Amino acid sequence: MPRVPKTTDRRAALSRRHVLQVGGLGLAGLSLPKYLEARADTSTTALEPKADSCIVIFLNGGPSHLDMWDMKPDTGEAIRGEFQPINTSLPGYQVCELLPRLSRHVHRSTVVRSMHHGVNNSHAAAVYAALTGHDRGEIGGGARPDDNPNPGSVLAMLRRPDKPIVPHVHLPYITQEGRGGPPQPGFFGGYLGRTRDPLFVLSDPNAADFAVPELTLLSDVSAGRLAERRSLLAGLDRRLQDGSGLTAADQMSGFQHLALDLLTSEATQQALDLAQESAEVREKYGRNRYGQSTLLGRRLIEAGTRMVTVSWAPDANATWDTHGGNFQKLRSTLLPEFDAACASLIEDLADRGMLERTIVAVMGDFGRSPKINKAAGRDHWNHCYSLMLFGGGFQSGLIYGSSDKIGAYPSSDPLIPGDIIAGLYHLLGIPRDLELTDALNRPRRLVPTGNVIHDLFA
Fold first, then answer.
1. Cβ(172)–Cβ(201) under 8 Å?
2. Residue 149 has pLDDT above 80, yes or no
3. Calpha distance 94→71 (Å, rounded)
4. 82, 163, 189, 314: which has the highest count of C-beta atoms within 10 A?
5. Distances (CA, A) of 383 to 65, 259, 404
6. Would the pLDDT of 263 be above 80?
7. Which helix (H) or strand (E) element contains residue 340?
8. CB atoms within 10 A of CB 252
9. What distance in Å separates the CA atoms of residue 127 and residue 117, rounded to the nearest whole number?
10. Contact at 8 Å (CB) between 297 and 169?
11. How many helices and strands in the chain, by DSSP H and E?
């Protein structure tokens, strides 16, 4: 069970925490009963889902395709960089030497080497396009209330989990558009409303005192005491209804009861308890914030959560945005940590028989420029980049598309972000042309630009 930090003022803490725990999540204005109420408003879809859940590992800032998945060893030094390619489990295909563990799982993947998009090279525009399939153009800044929703928000609305567990989780950062900047767009519920935002788990899962206080009972608030409060709520509702027949009171009590169920559910509590994993498993994923976040994502999906997003940066410039020292950063931290986390995730999902029904999408906002700059870095490059997809109906051992001889532009089968997002929705049983309504009751098409590319599917 995650530990709860001690407080010096028990009465004040009980009051504040009780409000957060039984009345709401306390994150971005998201009320837990309201969140559950929103979940109850579901729709059926016409597609038979091939996947039940999805984990997005978002390499925020723009991972270098030329130094990972689409190496060009036969080009000049100014293009090819410092790393050597190694063979993979898929004959004829190579990846960077710093991805030795992931190289053993390439036969399980679909690698797309012909991604591109037309939005400006800024992070906000590119992140939004990558995650939603929409190009909102260079309107600047971060998330907006009328943005299109993250796929996890849509999935949580249309396909509720079969167990009492949070359906959509985002960790370990709400990535900023530059240090101190606004939150990046594309990760939120957008026009579906704040009740469709994910649960943001922003504590460090690698920390010894890791806890998710929004879903952790106070040390002196037992399940029995919550059950007593459930009875009090029911009695209050009966008195209200006896006097006026207010069905709204009955409805809200129902969602409050569901909130209590979520707080006390064994699935939720166990999924959040990383102490249940052995030291060997935790080391395998990497004892760092991202490795343990990826492990937590696996536990949540295993417990019934529909969508988990790991945003791999506190701000857009902090990790994969390697304008300077590209090779040093990739060698020292970025690729070893990613290799351990991603390879361990694929290995565990496959060993548990879960990969067939779970999509793992490894994506970024764009790639990096073919030409190495004077700071030994690579700059933003939206004209060509790569991504990697596993499980959930995607083909195994497929290398889709190609880039030109220096990795600057697609040379065959070019795809745009809308194609990938449309494919994710399709495999998850949600039609890409589905229309949802915003707060003004206006119809909004889920993926307006992009097609379902059936050649990517098994």
1. yes
2. yes
3. 8
4. 189
5. 12, 46, 11
6. no
7. helix 335-351
8. 16
9. 11
10. yes
11. 13, 16
Report whether 32 contacts 259 (CB < 8 A): yes
Residue 40: its H or E element: helix 32-40
* Separation of alpha carbons 127 and 185, rounded Å: 7
**What does the block give as tokens for 455?**
């050649």
The backbone region for 392, taken as left when phi is positive above 0, alpha when psi lies in -120 to 50, beta otherwise, is left
Give the residue from 175, 180, 152 showing the smallest Cα distance to 60. 175
Query: Judging by beta carbons within 10 Å of its beta carbon (0-12, 13-18, 19+), is residue 288 exposed, middle or buried?
Result: middle
Nearest-10 crossing angle of helices 247-264, 223-244: 170
Please state, in angstroms and rounded to a whole number, the distance separating the CA atoms of residues 144 and 146.
Answer: 5
Helix (H, G, I), strand (E, B) or coil at 6: coil
- Cα 189 from chain centroid (whole Å): 13
Strand partners, 27: 30
Residue 381 in 3-state DSSP?
Answer: strand
| Phi and psi at residue 162, to the nearest 5° | -80, -10
Structure tokens at 176: 């900023």
Alpha helix (H) residue ranges in 65-213? 77-80, 123-132, 151-158
Q: What is the mean pLDDT of residues 447-452?
A: 92
Q: How far apart, in whole angstroms, are the C-alpha atoms of residue 325 and residue 336?
A: 16
The residue written with tokens 């030409």 in the block is 371
Query: Under 8 Å CB-to-CB from 6, ≥6 apart: which residues?
Result: none
pTM, two decimal places? 0.83
Q: Could you count the other beta carbons within 10 Å of the beta carbon of residue 357?
A: 17
Per residue in 367-405, pLDDT tens?
999 999 999 999 999 999 999 999 999 999 999 999 999
SS3 content of the chain, % helix, strand, coil (to 5): 40, 15, 45
The string of pLDDT tens digits covering residues 197-206 is 888 899 999 9
* Cβ proximity of 229 and 22 under 8 Å: yes
Q: Which two tokens stand for residue 429?
A: 């049983």
